[in-house]
Design brief:
By secondary structure, the protein is an alpha+beta fold. The protein has 29 helices and twelve strands. Among the domains are: 219 residues, no CATH class; 136 residues, no CATH class. A five-stranded antiparallel sheet has the order 4-3-7-11-10, with no helix packed on it. Strand 1 and strand 2 form a beta hairpin. The two termini are 16 Å apart.
């Protein structure tokens, strides 16, 4: 390929990506602050990577809720996060390294959509048009508000790409990399959302394309017979990832309370977690027209209330696709219907009905009759899948419409012009409808008329350039307005956390008092995550609905204020008693409150020099040198959990649940070495091995992909 052609190919992707970065420059350079859910992911990623950099695979978080489990939900095995560490090693502070990494991951998602479209359509320009529509859609707009959407979506879109690629080419690398995407999906947050999309796609495939589904299954079986070793490796790799998730699930089931959801999920607790009607109406799509039919009384006010010029910075469920896509779909009324349109249209509609949750009975029926739908909430996480399917459907319709436009059918031209005109009139609302929406409608009308009239210049690069401009012009205004909304996001916690460097955890004998604004729930939530970022103690069990405290700490926390002297008492990490106080632990927090008043006073340890010296401390363990003249009982005010193990002078000793929620153990007289370690199922060594295996398998898949490409080149 000539150098000029390569540069041109590169620029056509670099320029829109650079434009997207420019529109969000305030966030990418840290001048504007991300909102709370992406900040929470930042906290978890930083906590995990800080420990990983020290050679520790963190399982425990000793800084929140008196000690709680660190739950793997941000794709800890994903090689993506090595980019963050690399950027940090090159001198980029961790906050910016995180933001640039997730922005890069969005680009990976956009290229996944492009690659999938290249497999689905013979025309390269159609894939590029879909790339632009996706890059400037609501998926990227949620990056700074709900980055979990991106973390879930990226491996999923590449899964579907490698699935289609294998069907078309039967390459070995397609299977290996497809199984790697499944590994990432299995170990990132909750695979439920991907599984929902896959099952709906499979059911529709069986109905509309039974021969394709059967043929695909036969191809996999044939490949496995020809490559038994690689088949076993691929299946084993996915099994390893699934086992890891199962171990993590068992870890959570063992004495932890998940505050982010009720103990028993009810339909009322999930029905409002779908795509809200405000977002469905905000975007002038076929979906919004469908919703207005369902909710006829609000049709009159829809344009005024839900306009794109007031997108809130903290909106996690933005449903936005560039206006050009909607115009194309509306003009699709003159396109020739085919089976592929039916497939993509029904797939998007079914997922949309599920994601609406409370507005339609679909999710209610699934919740009642389909296992696992009653276990999860946040149904709006299906949004990036729905937007992508909407774009694929748009490209399919555009291909048919554009080909028909070349036939110079003037009846079709009249219908297309009428549809575009009605679209403009329906959403024309001075002061609410964006100016660029008018520009796109007028521009597409002109391009369509010229195309139907057979104007030759639209057949080449000028016609493509015009469509590219129409695809990008409206999102530029929308993204600019959305980025501007982040200027309203003020948080001392985020500012402080953004400037907190990577540093090992420091042990404090007494938890410091921190001031919170109890009137601002979000600020409490951010301070909650700031303690994780800075690896510093919180002086209290923060009264927030987020986190994974142990069962006993969760039950005891409400009693802190009502037990005289307990608030200051629990701030001290170590208390020494002359005898064991846990021989008969209280069965309820109220029972403990009565016992605490009558209990003999222990010695509150305010620092080293009172018989205790901390020799080593990290997320999963603590080592102490103790020296007491007589046997003592050492209370460690860090949450008790059965996975904690202890040794004294190298010999295993039992850990007792003391003071209802904490750890305690008997200490002999004289000098002794005490070591406490949190050992979940599998242990730290197993998890470090699994991470190495993920990286090895990914590298092996890429190497096989290069080999396949060389063979094709020959």
């Amino acid at each position: 390929m000539p150098l000029f052609t390569r540069v041109k190919q590169l620029l056509k992707f670099v320029l829109p990506i650079a434009l997207w970065c420019f529109l969000y420059r305030g966030l990418l350079w840290g001048k504007l602050l991300i909102s709370e859910d992406t900040f929470a992911v930042f906290a978890l990623v930083k906590y995990f990577l800080v420990n990983l950099k020290m050679g520790i695979f963190a399982h425990w978080n000793p800084f929140m809720h008196w000690g709680m489990g660190h739950v793997f939900q941000v794709g800890e095995f994903n090689p993506l996060w090595m980019v963050t560490l690399l950027l940090n090693a090159l001198g980029v502070d961790f906050y910016h390294a995180f933001l640039w990494t997730v922005a890069l991951y969005l680009v990976v998602a956009a290229f996944g959509v492009y690659a999938l479209l290249r497999r689905l359509f013979p025309e390269e320009f159609l894939a590029y048009l879909g790339f632009l529509l996706f890059l400037f859609s609501g998926v990227g707009m949620t990056l700074f508000t709900q980055v979990t959407l991106i973390l879930l979506f990226v491996p999923a879109i590449w899964f579907f790409y490698f699935l289609v690629e294998f069907y078309q080419t039967r390459r070995t690398a397609s299977v290996l990399l497809l199984s790697f995407t499944l590994m990432l999906i299995a170990t990132t947050y909750i695979p439920f959302y991907f599984a929902t999309v896959l099952m709906v796609a499979l059911i529709l495939g069986v109905v509309l394309y039974p021969s394709v589904v059967i043929h695909l299954f036969q191809d996999f079986m044939a490949w496995a017979r020809q490559n038994p070793f690689l088949a076993i490796l691929a299946i084993g790799a996915v099994a390893v990832a699934v086992t890891t998730s199962v171990l993590n699930w068992l870890f959570l089931k063992s004495d932890f309370m998940v505050l982010a959801r009720p103990t028993v999920m009810t339909y009322d607790s999930v029905k409002d977690s779908g795509i809200p009607i405000s977002e469905a109406l905000r975007d002038q799509s076929l979906f919004s027209l469908f919703i207005q039919l369902l909710q006829a009384p609000i049709l009159v006010n829809a344009r005024e209330i839900f306009s794109l010029d007031n997108i809130a910075y903290d909106n996690q469920r933005i449903f936005y696709v560039p206006a050009l896509a909607h115009l194309v779909l509306l003009c699709g009324i003159v396109a020739r219907l085919n089976k592929r349109m039916v497939y993509w249209g029904f797939l998007g509609l079914v997922l949309f009905l599920i994601a609406l949750a409370r507005l339609t009975p679909v999710y209610g029926l699934l919740f009642k009759y389909v296992p696992c739908f009653d276990m999860f909430r946040n149904i709006f996480l299906l949004t990036p899948f729905i937007i992508t399917i909407y774009i694929i459907f748009t490209v399919e319709v555009f291909r048919s419409f554009w080909l028909k436009a070349a036939s110079r059918n003037y009846v079709s031209l009249f219908v297309a012009v009428l549809v575009i005109g009605l679209y403009g009139l329906l959403w024309s609302r001075p002061g609410y409808t964006l100016h660029t929406t008018y520009a796109v409608a007028v521009g597409f009308l002109v391009v369509t008329v010229l195309r139907f009239l057979g104007v030759s210049f639209l057949r080449g690069r000028w016609g493509k350039a015009a469509l590219v401009g129409l695809a990008v012009i409206s999102p530029m205004e929308v993204l600019f307005l959305h980025a501007r909304q982040f200027s309203h996001n003020h948080s001392d916690a985020i500012v402080k956390a953004a400037h907190t460097p990577l540093a090992p955890p420091q042990f404090s004998f007494v938890r410091q008092i921190t001031q919170y604004d109890e009137t601002k729930a979000n600020d409490i939530y951010r301070w909650y995550n700031w303690h994780i970022i800075a690896m510093q103690d919180s002086d209290r069990f923060i009264t927030t609905k987020y986190g994974y405290p142990t069962y006993w700490s969760y039950m005891l926390a409400p009693m802190v204020e009502s037990i005289p002297g307990f608030k200051d008492y629990v701030r001290h990490k170590f208390i020494v008693y002359p005898q064991n106080i846990s021989s008969q632990p209280a069965t309820s927090p109220h029972g403990f409150a009565k016992e605490f008043v009558l209990r003999p006073n222990g010695i509150l340890i305010n620092g080293p020099g009172q018989g205790i010296t901390v020799q080593r401390f990290n997320a999963n363990q603590i080592s102490l040198a103790v020296d007491f003249p007589t046997p003592r009982f050492l209370l460690y005010n860090d949450s008790f959990h059965p996975f904690w193990k202890a040794t004294i002078n190298g010999k295993p000793v039992p850990i007792s649940r003391a003071n209802f929620a904490f750890k305690g153990l008997d200490i002999p007289a004289g000098r002794a070495e005490v070591h406490l370690e949190f050992r979940p199922l599998g242990g730290t060594i197993m998890y470090m091995f699994l991470m190495a295996f993920f990286y090895f398998y990914f590298g092996f898949g890429l190497q096989q992909w290069r080999r396949d490409r060389r063979r094709l080149a020959l």
